[in-house]
């Protein structure tokens, strides 16, 4: 939109003066996360995080502008005013039309506000119960509070109220978003001018512009193009920056970012392919800014401000959380990655992890090192072949929602060393993915790691320190389980160990009194068995196995008069 572009231009000039310079998707099926697999792939323009400041009007080719280069595959579908993939381009417009034709009043209202509000303000509701504290302590404001009943005038002025104050209690967060969003390097003006793909409402009368915006959209100049969506780009910049400083709301924030893209389609402004491109653009620009050494102090101050009483210490449980349902967020985010387009390219290209992309998970998975975070992105990435998404570096295939749930596959030994004293996710985290692979998991250090997926990894599980909590029957995968130290905690009544089970004298097994652990092979017992809440019944089998050696050195949690009995194939409770 021209008004927003003028806003970006003014902000860009200021920055330049300061800087002299359905629906879960299948994951990638590559077989090994070797150093070669995790190595970045250099694009024609270099690496985005190294060249992102070249996304300016001086550079307009795929070889010298990283935004143009990253999104260059669109030219395979549309170039020089011609649809080269007629079926795909028709589907793109048809999807946009259907979304505009079926929008609800609530969606219309939301898309209108997304259209006019400063997007830094617009994504605040992704913070859920912390949003009211953010608005208050960041002195956040907006001129737009509702959708008018009559169409806006063709040249309605953009609001001039600052979205938030850098002098507020949450000023460091405001400063970070002001610095990392709407920059001279994050606009989509260059790629739009290169592609010249018309807005959907100008391609088909079946696309129904939002009634409140019909005058504004009709008055937009002919060179106000569709691909890629600038609002979606900014929505992901803002959402990902907030997700970095408030990782406790990581998945909620990026779901709101994806909703910004949907809102653009709902309003009639953009096509699905345009907002898919915007997701890629916003993700790459944010990773570039967060990887820039000169921004590290600003990032730390913003993170510290978020974890003060001014934000995370001011939870309001009465606030409506638009993103409070995990399953809904997951399904919505994953659908919006592809908008239901089919794979039209090679579906068998191994996942690629862009240089620097691991920074996006730095605060969400702080107990993993940079290489491990790259491996998480590698094993949770989308399959290849979807339109727009197969850029050389791999930005289009990053599934950040799944990546926030930990690994999608163990291709080698994965050691997780948590330090509970650091708090936050270092003290407790939950991996919800269904983890496959031939590799193994080693839990060490302190802190508690939950495994909540339907896991099938075969390399085994070892607990050396802290707590590993299994919350599903198959959470331990299909290999052997060893408890050499720390605690293996079972939070479900039935757990199956497909291989052997071994517990040393330093290990602890913590289960409910009415739980049942099925060990398919041999059990070597030792250390402590701690029985927790659960009904007591004489003869209950806590563990069953093919055969066993040894006994638990200590058993706690049973009332007086109760004890455990060891038989050839079971450990039973007896009175």
TrEMBL record:
Keywords, in A-Z order: Signal
Domain of life: Bacteria
Residue ranges of every copy of the Phosphatidic acid phosphatase type 2/haloperoxidase domain listed in the record: 184-289
Leader peptide range in chain numbering: 1-32
Protein name: Phosphatase PAP2 family protein
InterPro entries membership: Autotrns_rpt, PAP2/HPO, PAP2/HPO_sf, Pectin_lyase_fold/virulence
Native species: Levilactobacillus tongjiangensis
Keyword Signal: yes
Keyword Signal: yes
Pfam families, per the entry: PAP2, PATR
């Amino acid at each position: 939109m021209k008004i927003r572009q003028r806003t970006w231009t003014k902000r860009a000039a200021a920055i330049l003066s300061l800087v002299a310079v359905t629906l879960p998707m299948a994951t990638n099926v590559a077989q090994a996360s070797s150093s070669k697999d995790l190595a970045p792939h250099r694009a024609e323009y270099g690496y985005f995080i190294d060249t992102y400041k070249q996304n300016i009007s001086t550079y307009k080719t795929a070889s010298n502008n990283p935004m143009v280069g990253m999104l260059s595959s669109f030219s395979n579908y549309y170039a020089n005013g011609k649809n080269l993939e007629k079926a795909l381009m028709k589907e793109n417009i048809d999807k946009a039309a259907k979304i505009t034709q079926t929008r609800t009043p609530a969606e219309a209202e939301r898309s209108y506000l997304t259209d006019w509000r400063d997007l830094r303000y617009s994504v605040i509701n992704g913070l859920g119960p912390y949003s009211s504290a953010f608005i208050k302590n960041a002195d956040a404001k907006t001129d737009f509070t509702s959708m008018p009943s009559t169409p806006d005038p063709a040249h309605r002025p953009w609001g001039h109220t600052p979205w938030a104050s850098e002098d507020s209690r949450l000023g460091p967060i405001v400063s970070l978003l002001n610095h990392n969003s709407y920059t001279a390097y994050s606009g989509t003006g260059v790629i739009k001018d290169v592609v010249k793909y018309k807005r959907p409402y100008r391609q088909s009368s079946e696309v129904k512009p939002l009634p409140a915006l019909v005058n504004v959209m009709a008055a937009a100049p002919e060179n106000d193009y569709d691909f890629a969506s600038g609002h979606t780009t900014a929505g992901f910049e803002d959402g990902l920056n907030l997700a970095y400083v408030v990782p406790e709301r990581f998945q909620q924030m990026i779901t709101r970012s994806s909703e910004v893209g949907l809102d653009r389609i709902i309003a009639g402004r953009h096509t699905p392919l345009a907002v898919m491109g915007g997701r890629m653009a916003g993700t790459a620009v944010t990773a570039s800014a967060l990887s820039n050494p000169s921004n590290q102090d600003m990032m730390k101050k913003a993170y510290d401000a978020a974890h003060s009483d001014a934000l995370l210490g001011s939870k309001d449980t009465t606030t409506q959380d638009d993103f409070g349902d995990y399953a809904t967020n997951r399904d919505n985010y994953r659908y919006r990655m592809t908008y239901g387009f089919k794979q039209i390219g090679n579906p068998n290209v191994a996942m690629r992890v862009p240089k620097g992309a691991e920074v996006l998970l730095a605060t969400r998975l702080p107990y993993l090192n940079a290489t491990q975070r790259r491996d998480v992105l590698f094993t949770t990435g989308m399959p290849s072949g979807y339109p727009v998404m197969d850029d050389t570096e791999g930005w289009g295939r990053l599934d950040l929602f799944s990546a926030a749930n930990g690994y999608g596959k163990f291709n080698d030994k994965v050691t997780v060393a948590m330090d509970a004293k650091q708090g936050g996710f270092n003290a407790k985290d939950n991996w919800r993915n269904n983890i496959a692979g031939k590799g193994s998991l080693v839990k060490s250090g302190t802190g508690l790691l939950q495994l909540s997926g339907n896991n099938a990894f075969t390399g085994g599980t070892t607990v050396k320190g802290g707590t590993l909590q299994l919350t599903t029957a198959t959470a331990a995968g299909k290999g052997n389980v060893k408890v050499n130290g720390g605690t293996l905690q079972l939070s479900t009544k039935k757990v199956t160990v497909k291989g052997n089970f071994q517990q040393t004298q330093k290990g602890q097994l913590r289960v409910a009194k009415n739980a049942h652990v099925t060990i398919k092979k041999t059990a070597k017992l030792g250390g402590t068995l701690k029985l927790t809440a659960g009904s007591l019944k004489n003869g209950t089998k806590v563990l069953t196995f093919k055969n066993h050696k040894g006994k638990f050195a200590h058993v706690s949690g049973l009332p007086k008069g109760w004890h455990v009995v060891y038989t050839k194939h079971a450990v039973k409770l007896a009175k």
